[in-house]
Write a structure and sequence with these properties.
elongated, eleven-stranded antiparallel β-sheet, single chain, 756 residues, mainly beta, 3% helix, nine-stranded antiparallel β-sheet
């Protein structure tokens, strides 16, 4: 039993919080995990994605093609399967336009302009115009004025590895054994709508398009020459683009949006990055390309900056650098539009890799605000601040790990915590080679200005192979303490009773002070120790910690299963399970590479998360990215937190509903009152017996007594309340059938509520 003074204070806190909320209707029970949310675009694209770069080049992406337009020409890149060894582009450049033997004046230096789905390049006497459709590109050469008499010939240079061929139907193809590009029969159309066939002829360095003189003599100008570029496939292979390695972040703008970034495999040497925007109801708000060029972007990560209404995506760009792009969100309600800044370089180094980014969830942060980016480079872990205007600020001491150590694979918290500007910190963790003792896990804390608020410190130095660390954001502040959690993968050697396998481990820290010490999460979460658990991730809702991991079912099956669980710190030193692992996807597929973001890390006081992962079917090869929403306490059965302790002795009953979890609400409804209903709320004590079997189990000395038949209680987001038990019981004054003295009354059953 709690002391009366403590009990009164805790209960008063709860009651005051509850009094500020209107009464709510009982909520239906929920699973912890929502139905799966698609985060990748459908195979049949409904629009062309456009991206204008700062160098005057415009990129476009359709269903099975990509193309660029610029001063150097038109580049059409057919999709020949994600397993293609590289891209096989066809570059087409306008060389000359002749009327008879007279060359028309051309200016081939002008950049492309975009209006809707039309790209134009003014070339003097001729305008190149490209109408973009999801199935291909319609190429138009527009001749504004009548030239001198004679055939009109457009000469085009072609640069490609593909083999060119002309066909009897007037089409051209550029192909290899996988497929290639088909250029349709060209048609000339005059201003009056008259049409004629245009002769296409392959020449040494390209091809020509010729409009006959007799058609030109009667034509009304302007005149359009109009072929169409399409991709086609010959060999069987992946029928659609493959997606992998997703990450996710949340931003509390409008009704709130999640941004998921992931790789799209166009060929072995060309991986693009997409961002999918998801509303809180699970519906898609659109897909955008962070990169659609032929430069490969790998392993993207994303974070949000609330005050700037912005995301930042970072990735390894080719073999040369760490690159990034800002993603601006303009949101009103459930409507949102993303716009992308220009790509920029964070670190130009051939050895830079494994980039990760942390954002800022504080609404009052001064602009331009900062992100923190970390990466591995030449055996060191580095970091830099990146402003929301894309300016890279390199801190004075960019190397985080001890000098001389071989370190890498860093991870950073999704945000720098909910503290006021100037008191915020990102947590960074990494793996570090310990020689014969395997790999250790280290960490550091980076202040909002890029300085080290905590230099490198050892997290786990056991004689084992500890790798793939991930770290949560800081929790809310409770008693001047902010916890954070780190998880990692440990290789366990085989023994007489079990084969070699991988487990997931973790620890909860307060600053540089360990609260729990390393814990085997595989054992804590009751997962089979003969299976492999790997690739963990972790995030916080401000109070608890959500842990995700993939589990290999057996060596004889391709099935890898994704799980989420929730843990919390109990009593300041013990890691306890709030919710045991729940399976995200039951299909027999390889579901792996989980990442997770909480709405708390994006600026909302909410207990909800979104997790994303990739799923792979080996035959036929299909690979995509999907997501799900999660609240770890929602799969706890109500019998475990609404406990009927004492029976009632009258007609009135007490009906509980809701969820007694931190940040959630419960409702207590007195039903069937025949007199004046009152509700006792306090701590449970040994019952006091009255007449007729009526027993009161709520401590009368500390109880709050409310004259009501419907009471809503908001549970404050304080981890100190986890495990607290509150008792509720109703009394129906002047009701018959129970006690008669000093006035008639009956009692409902007593319900003890466990705070999750």
């Amino acid at each position: 039993m709690h002391p009366p003074t403590l009990g009164s204070c805790l209960l008063a806190t709860l009651v005051v919080a509850a009094s500020l909320l209107p009464a709510q209707q009982p909520t239906a029970p929920h699973r912890a995990v929502s139905p799966r949310v698609p985060i990748a675009p459908p195979v049949a694209r409904d629009h062309v994605c456009l991206d204008a770069h700062g160098d005057g080049t415009v990129w476009a992406r359709g269903t099975d093609w990509k193309a660029s337009f610029g001063a150097s020409g038109f580049v059409f890149v057919p999709f020949l399967g994600a397993d293609a060894p590289r891209n096989f582009p066809v570059t087409v450049r306008l060389q000359s336009v002749r009327a008879g033997s007279v060359a028309l004046p051309l200016d081939l230096s002008r950049a492309a302009t975009v209006a809707g789905n039309t790209v134009r390049m003014a070339r003097g006497a001729v305008t190149e115009c490209y109408e973009l459709a999801t199935r291909g590109v319609e190429q138009k050469f527009v001749v504004a004025e009548r030239p001198v008499a004679g055939n009109l010939t457009v000469e085009l240079a072609v640069d490609t590895e593909l083999t060119a061929a002309g066909h009897a139907d007037g089409t051209l193809t550029f192909a290899n054994e996988r497929g290639g590009v088909r250029v349709s029969e060209a048609i000339a159309i005059d201003a009056g709508g008259r049409r004629c066939h245009v002769q296409a002829e392959l020449v040494a360095d390209g091809y020509t398009l010729t409009v006959p003189a007799d058609f030109l003599a009667a034509a009304a100008f302007p005149l359009v020459i109009d072929p169409f570029f399409l991709s086609f496939s010959i060999t069987p292979g992946p029928g659609s683009t493959l997606y992998q390695l997703p990450d996710v972040a949340y931003l509390a703008q409008g009704d709130g949006f999640y941004a998921s970034v992931f790789e799209e495999i166009y060929s072995a040497t060309d991986h693009d990055v997409l961002v999918g925007l998801t509303r809180r109801d699970g519906s898609s708000a659109g897909f955008y390309y962070v990169d659609v060029s032929t430069t490969t972007w790998l392993a993207p990560r994303v974070a949000s900056h609330l005050a700037a209404s912005q995301f930042l995506c970072v990735a390894r760009v080719g073999n040369t650098s760490i690159g990034a792009r800002t993603i601006q969100l303009a949101a009103s309600g459930s409507s949102a539009v993303l716009s992308l800044g220009l790509p920029f370089t964070i670190r130009a180094s051939a050895t830079a890799m494994d980039a990760d980014v942390g954002g800022d969830s504080n609404r009052t942060a001064a602009l331009p605000g900062n992100y923190c980016v970390t990466w591995g480079e030449s055996g060191n872990v580095r970091h830099a601040l990146v402003r929301t205007d894309s300016l890279v600020l390199v801190p004075p001491n960019p190397v985080l790990d001890p000098v001389g150590a071989s370190a890498g694979n860093p991870a950073i918290s999704k945000c720098c915590g909910p503290a006021l500007p100037g008191a915020q910190d990102w947590m960074i963790v990494w793996e570090q080679d310990a020689g014969a003792n395997g790999q250790d896990i280290w960490g550091a804390s980076v202040h909002f200005d890029g300085s080290l608020s905590a230099p490198a410190f050892l997290i786990e130095g056991a004689n084992s192979s500890d790798t793939r660390p991930e770290v949560s954001s800081l929790t809310d502040v409770f008693g001047n303490v902010q916890q954070w959690m780190v998880v990692w993968q440990r290789a366990v050697p085989g023994g007489p009773l079990q084969p070699a396998h991988d487990d997931v481990w973790g620890a909860i820290w307060d600053g540089t002070t360990p609260r729990t010490g390393p814990r085997n999460l595989t054992a804590l979460l009751l997962r089979p120790n003969f299976r492999n658990q790997w690739n963990p991730c972790v995030e916080t809702d401000g109070m608890r910690f959500c842990v995700g991991f993939a589990e290999k079912v057996s060596t004889f099956s391709p099935d890898v299963e994704p799980y989420l669980a929730t843990v919390h710190l109990q009593g300041g030193a013990t890691m306890e399970v709030t919710s045991y692992p729940e399976l995200l996807n039951a299909y027999v597929e390889a579901d792996d590479n989980l990442q997770i973001a909480s709405e708390r890390s994006g600026g909302t006081a909410s207990t909800r998360y979104m997790t994303v992962w990739d799923t792979r079917q080996p035959s036929p090869l299909l690979q995509g990215c999907i997501g799900a929403f999660y609240r770890g306490h929602l799969n706890v059965p109500s019998a475990s937190y609404f406990n009927h302790a004492l029976p009632g002795c009258g007609a009135m009953t007490l009906v509980p509903s809701g969820l007694p979890a931190l940040g959630e609400t419960i409702q207590m409804n007195l039903v069937g009152a025949q007199g004046l209903p009152f509700l006792f709320a306090g701590f449970s004590v040994p019952p006091t017996s009255y007449c007729g079997g009526c027993e009161l189990g709520v401590d009368q000395a500390t109880a709050a007594v409310l004259f009501t038949n419907a009471f809503t209680l908001a549970i404050p987001p304080d981890v100190g309340l986890i495990g607290l038990m509150l008792a509720f019981q109703g009394i129906d004054v002047l009701a018959p059938g129970g006690c008669s003295a000093p006035v008639p009354f009956t009692l409902t059953d007593e319900i003890i509520v466990l705070i999750l």
